């Protein structure tokens, strides 16, 4: 792989994004660690540099078109044309439909759908020019429907349609697009869910693991490994797929 290939991972200050940024750096990419808070992004980038990799931290609200344009231009300038994009930034605003506010709905749509749209639009110009690109969007097992997540499940199902359309439009330029749909992954996001429903995170994990065929919850590394494969040169014939990484079958 060319040592100059640049990857952007959004929502990478912690959780799945941070682990994916570290994994792609160890795969040989120069990595832009993107998150809302530039200092938190830079802290993750520093750990990558300390481990011998190349990375910068960039503060971008992925829902803000101006910040996306300026941030992606900065990445291209400082690290090189971004040809790998992992749209991982995400939030939850869970509530039963009758209690869900318009703000809960709009906030989730803005980060997941508008964010992925803006980031992909900004990066595809570099990918099509380079005649190589890898786009990975974070969907979720919740795309199949989940109580209390009308907004989130709609957004994560929407990302699957977005992914398939990108695959159709961009394939001729050497660009693939795939979605990874995690099940239960142990991060701050699932810790927040445990808190909302009023159980300890340990009990939540133990209970969830019993429902999962492989008998454990997922770790960020499980997702990072799948993303690493989808971003690799050898995954060039895999496009428009939704890969559930959930410790058991989902489709
Ligand atoms: N944890 C799970 O079980 C799970 C399951 C399925 C899907 N996912 C998806 O995987 C992705 C990562 O999840 P996680 O568990 O690591 O979450 P997390 O909450 O630990 O991390 C999400 C990151 O996204 C950032 N972010 C939020 N809004 C942003 C914005 N507007 N611009 C830039 N960054 C923003 C946050 O600051 C945070 O650092 C999300 O898209 C999530 O929906 C997670």
TrEMBL record:
Record GO terms (molecular function): oxidoreductase activity
Domain Ketoreductase: 5-183
InterPro entries membership: KR_dom, NAD(P)-bd_dom_sf, Sc_DH/Rdtase_CS, SDR, SDR_fam
NCBIfam families: PRK12826.1-2
Family that this chain belongs to: Belongs to the short-chain dehydrogenases/reductases (SDR) family.
Listed PANTHER family: 3-OXOACYL-(ACYL-CARRIER-PROTEIN) REDUCTASE (PTHR42879), 3-OXOACYL-[ACYL-CARRIER-PROTEIN] REDUCTASE FABG (PTHR42879:SF2)
Name of the featured protein: 3-oxoacyl-[acyl-carrier protein] reductase
Organism of this sequence: Knoellia remsis
């Amino acid at each position: 792989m060319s040592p100059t290939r640049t990857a952007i991972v959004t929502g990478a200050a912690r959780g799945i994004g941070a682990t994916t940024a570290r994994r792609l750096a160890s795969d040989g990419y120069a990595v832009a660690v993107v998150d809302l808070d530039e200092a938190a992004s830079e802290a993750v980038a520093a750990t990558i540099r300390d481990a011998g990799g190349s990375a910068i931290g960039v503060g971008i609200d992925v829902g803000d078109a101006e910040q996306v344009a300026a941030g992606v231009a900065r990445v291209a300038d400082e690290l090189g044309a971004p040809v790998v994009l992992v749209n991982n930034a995400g939030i939850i605003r869970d509530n039963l439909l009758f209690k869900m506010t318009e703000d809960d709905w709009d906030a989730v749509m803005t980060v997941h759908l508008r964010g992925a749209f803006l980031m992909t639009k900004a990066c595809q110009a570099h990918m099509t020019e380079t005649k190589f690109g890898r786009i990975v969007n974070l969907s979720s097992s919740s795309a199949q429907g989940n109580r209390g997540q009308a907004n989130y499940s709609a957004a994560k199902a929407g990302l699957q349609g977005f992914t398939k359309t990108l695959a159709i439009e961009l394939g001729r330029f050497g660009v693939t697009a795939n979605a990874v749909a995690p099940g239960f992954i142990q991060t701050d996001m699932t810790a927040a869910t445990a808190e909302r429903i009023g159980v300890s995170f340990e009990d939540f994990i133990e209970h969830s693991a019993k429902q999962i065929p492989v008998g454990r919850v997922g770790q960020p590394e499980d997702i990072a490994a799948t993303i690493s494969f989808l971003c690799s040169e050898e995954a060039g014939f895999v496009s428009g797929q939704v890969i559930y990484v959930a410790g058991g079958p989902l489709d």
